[in-house]
Amino acid sequence: MLQKAGLIRYARGQMEVTDRPSLEAASCECYHVVRREFTHLLGGSGAAVRPD
């Protein structure tokens, strides 16, 4: 559903977020609560780190 909406792209176990603002808008309110708490507890932007 998310891929059909153009929000993500995935293949062979790899996922790429193609439209983050729209993906966040489509998420439930709990995403923002969790992100705010993550930032509060661990600092930083809360952005995911891409593995090498």
The H/E string reads: EEHH
Please state the CA-atom Rg, rounded to the nearest Å. 13 Å
- Fraction in beta strands: 15-25%
Give the overall shape, derived from the CA principal axes.
Answer: elongated
Largest sheet: 2 strands, antiparallel
Number of strands: 2
Task: Return the structural class.
Answer: alpha+beta
The first-to-last residue Cα distance is 28 Å
Helix content: 40-55%
- The number of distinct helices, counting runs of at least 4 residues, comes to 2
Kindly report the average pLDDT value: 85
List the helices and strands and how they pair.
Elements: E1 8-11, E2 14-17, H1 20-26, H2 29-42
Antiparallel strand pairs: 1-2
Question: Could you walk me through the main structural features you see in this protein, from its secondary elements to its overall organization?
Answer:
It is a single chain. This protein has 52 residues and is of the alpha+beta class. 40% of the residues lie in helices and 15% in strands. A two-stranded antiparallel ribbon has the order 1-2. It is elongated and about 35 Å long. The termini are far apart. 0% of the residues are buried. The model has no long low-confidence stretch (mean pLDDT 85).
